[in-house]
TrEMBL record:
It catalyses: S-adenosyl-L-homocysteine + H2O + H(+) = S-inosyl-L-homocysteine + NH4(+); S-methyl-5'-thioadenosine + H2O + H(+) = S-methyl-5'-thioinosine + NH4(+). It holds the Pfam family Amidohydro_1. Residues 57-401 form the Amidohydrolase-related domain. Its EC number is 3.5.4.28, 3.5.4.31. Its cofactor is Zn(2+). Keywords: Hydrolase, Metal-binding, Zinc. Belongs to the metallo-dependent hydrolases superfamily. MTA/SAH deaminase family. Catalyzes the deamination of 5-methylthioadenosine and S-adenosyl-L-homocysteine into 5-methylthioinosine and S-inosyl-L-homocysteine, respectively. Is also able to deaminate adenosine. Zn(2+) binds at residues 66, 68, 212, 300. The keyword Zinc applies. InterPro entries: Amidohydro-rel (IPR006680), Deaminase_MtaD/DadD (IPR023512), Metal-dep_hydrolase_composite (IPR011059), Metal_Hydrolase (IPR032466), MTA/SAH_deaminase (IPR050287). Binds 1 zinc ion per subunit. This is 5-methylthioadenosine/S-adenosylhomocysteine deaminase.
Length: 434
């Protein structure tokens, strides 16, 4: 058994008033044993390691509820375009050139970035997901993976079989760090019959569904022209929303759509920065939360953001809602909840998202002894409005250190960066020649 004691400021995310300015966390193997003030360790707890971090805040690891990790290979490749031309003219042609190995290395550099910026769990949608799983298992993070399914494409049926095989091979592996969902891309890329097939398989295998919904006005127009309904109304009519569903984006919603999402307990992955950059719009997060919809935060892929920094995403999410509603909505602690507790609920994970006895030891420490964190009137406000990726000092998942003193322990960062550069430039040159 491995026992670790951390002395630090502790923000457990168990309530707005829960904060220990001089606190400690006891960890045994992969679980948290106790959280409280200094000296609150259980009698007889004898740690093998003690981390003295009095100027760090310990909090739950951040949870990225929607991304396409391997698209980090396209970072900076296709900027300043609206969604549909961006996809059709730039992204999909590039992706057609990707090999399985490319996807492995693209995922690996995304995981390096996420670990260094405090993200311990992601919900990913892409192809060659066995490569993504391999990268996650090596990196040591937690992940929910879904095979991206474009039902209207030539490989729709094969992709569906790959998603089924992904469940069989990887669901619950990595000591439970990996979970699998089905990933139909969007209402405008999947037919009714195809979506029904996906739902049948998801129900049979007892896993959830991860899908883009109401991301752009173009999508609204396409679905309304084909079916006479909004995407949310159409998916609800198909029965897709029964069970565990994560709907990414949900930017263009009617009042009826919001009622449907709330009634069906659909979770929403909010991607503020991607939606801004692609000019997709601003999701009505304030209204969704008021109706009881669980909302998590996502970065989307690095091709449309262009980073995977959830601290920046928290700040953008807060500012967007204040701009569209008023300055009082979505205060800092609620945004932190979306990045931790809400993220865990969105992904259907019951033992992460807070620091409490019995929960997994997925945590990060933030170095608060820096000029932009003084004076310390409000730790939650500093974390949402002032913090950035480089402030993360320590990252732990399942009680294992993935980063200490800003040094990544599970991945060779230099090799990952070089592989990524070489592979991305090869594809770009090939496309330019042709």
């Amino acid at each position: 058994m491995t026992k670790i004691l951390i002395h630090a400021m502790v923000l457990p995310m168990t309530g707005a008033d829960a904060f220990f300015p001089q606190g400690e966390i006891c960890i045994e193997d992969d679980k948290i044993v106790s959280v409280g003030v200094l000296g609150s360790a259980p009698a007889g707890f004898e740690p093998e390691r003690i981390l003295e971090l009095p100027n760090d805040v310990v909090m739950p690891g951040l949870i990225n509820t929607h991304t396409h990790a391997a698209m980090t290979l396209l970072r900076g490749y296709a900027d300043d375009l609206p969604l549909m031309p961006w996809l059709n003219e730039k992204i999909w042609p590039f992706e057609d050139k990707l090999t399985d190995e490319d996807i492995y290395w693209g995922t690996s550099i995304a995981l390096c970035e996420m670990i260094r910026s405090g993200t311990t769990t992601m919900l990913d949608m892409y192809a060659s997901m066995d490569q993504v799983a391999s990268a996650v298992l090596l990196a040591g993070t937690r992940a929910v993976l879904s095979r991206g399914l474009i039902g209207n494409g030539p490989n729709g049926e094969r992709a569906l079989q790959e998603n089924i095989e992904l469940v069989r091979r990887y669901h619950g592996t990595g000591d439970g760090r990996l979970s699998i969902m089905f990933g139909p891309h969007a209402p405008y890329t999947c037919s009714a019959d195809y979506l029904k097939k996906v739902k049948v398989e998801a129900d049979r295998l007892k896993v959830g569904v991860h899908i883009h919904v109401a991301e752009t006005q173009d999508e609204i127009n396409i679905v309304r022209e084909q079916y006479g309904k909004t995407p949310v109304q159409w998916l609800d009519e198909l029965g897709l929303f029964s069970g565990h569903v994560v709907a990414a984006h949900c930017v263009h919603l009617t009042a009826e759509d919001i009622e449907i999402l709330a009634r069906q307990n659909v979770c929403v992955a909010h991607n503020a920065e991607s939606n801004m950059k692609l000019s997709s719009g601003t999701a009505p997060i304030t209204e969704l939360r008021a109706k009881g919809v669980v909302v998590g935060l996502g970065t989307d892929g690095a091709s449309s953001n262009n980073n995977l920094d959830l601290f920046g995403e928290m700040r953008s999410a807060a500012f967007q809602q204040k701009l569209r509603v008023n300055s009082t909505v979505l205060p800092a602690y609620e945004v932190l909840e979306m990045a931790t507790v809400g993220g865990a609920q969105t992904l259907g994970l019951e033992d992460v998202g807070v620091l409490a006895p019995g929960f997994k030891a997925d945590l990060i420490t933030i170095d608060m002894d820096q000029p932009h964190f003084y004076p310390r009137f409000s730790i939650p406000a500093h974390l949402v409005y002032a913090a950035h990726a480089g402030d993360v000092r320590t990252v732990m998942v399942d009680g294992k250190f993935l980063m200490e003193d800003r040094r990544l322990l599970t991945m060779d960062v230099g090799k990952v960066c070089q592989e990524t550069e070489t592979r991305a430039k090869r594809i770009a040159m090939d496309l330019n020649v042709k």
